[in-house]
Design a protein that fits this description.
By secondary structure, this protein is α+β, with helices and mostly antiparallel strands. The chain is built from three helices and seven strands; from the N terminus they run H-E-E-E-H-E-E-E-H-E. Among the domains are: 61 residues, Antifreeze-like/N-acetylneuraminic acid synthase C-terminal domain (Type Iii Antifreeze Protein Isoform Hplc 12, Alpha-Beta Complex), CATH 3.90.1210.10; 90 residues, no CATH class. The protein has a five-stranded antiparallel beta sheet. It has a two-stranded antiparallel sheet with strand order 1-2.
């Protein structure tokens, strides 16, 4: 006796077709090449300040670092290597993380005024008004008065003023003086323990800058 096969249900057939399609899709995905990794956007090195820097500051390696900028956002006049800016002097203040540009630096002629063995030393007198009266080219004596002392001692004598804030922009009163290495070390030490004041050096000549009324002798 011949038995007739019972026709398959439509639902069963659909499941088989779906399973076959899934198997084919999995095979296609397995054979598909992996996408290339996304490339990082191109950047360029830009020298920026590590900390807030005051006008007249002499840049050191510790003051500078390198940040990465998209080429289109790189400010003009920036440097790629901190070594290119070490020893340069800031014409204005720079905030931490801000790029250091050539427009914010004192011209190269400033360091050309240094004699052999001299360095540019920053000095901040206690009286900001006095700093505002000093001009580049003046010669000043720097006096230090330790706490409790009855009289001041001359720490630097006849130092050439390389940079000064000027009468209309006293800022924080920072001056830049040309001194030898030993005197620069004395000035740095005195700044932490004593009050610094200025007086005109006896070597000051008329025309080099204004006198400081009521200051020094």
């Amino acid at each position: 006796m011949v038995r007739l096969r019972r026709p398959r249900r439509p639902l069963h057939t659909a499941r088989q077709v779906l399973a076959a399609l899934l198997a084919v899709a999995a095979l296609v995905l397995a054979l598909r090449p992996a996408p290339a990794p996304a490339r990082a956007p191109a950047t360029v090195p830009v020298v920026v300040a590590v900390v807030d820097l005051a006008p007249g500051a002499v840049l050191t390696e510790d003051d500078l670092t390198v940040a990465r900028y998209p080429p289109a956002l790189r400010p003009g006049g920036t440097a790629e290597d901190p070594e290119a800016l070490v020893g340069r002097v800031l014409a204005g203040g720079v905030r931490s993380g801000e790029p250091v540009t050539d427009a914010g630096l004192v011209g190269a002629g400033l360091t050309a005024q240094l004699d052999a063995g001299q360095v540019a030393a920053p000095v901040r007198p206690a009286d900001l008004a006095v700093s505002a009266l000093v001009r580049p080219g003046d010669r000043v004596d720097v006096l230090a008065t330790p706490p409790g002392a009855e009289r001041a001692e001359v720490v630097a004598a006849g130092a050439l003023v390389l940079a000064a804030p000027g009468p209309d922009d006293a800022g924080d009163g920072l001056l830049l003086l040309a001194v030898d290495g030993d005197t620069a070390a004395l000035l740095a030490a005195a700044a932490t323990t004593a009050t610094l004041t200025l007086s005109l050096s006896p070597r000051w000549e008329p025309g080099a800058g204004p006198a400081l009324p009521g200051v020094g002798g």
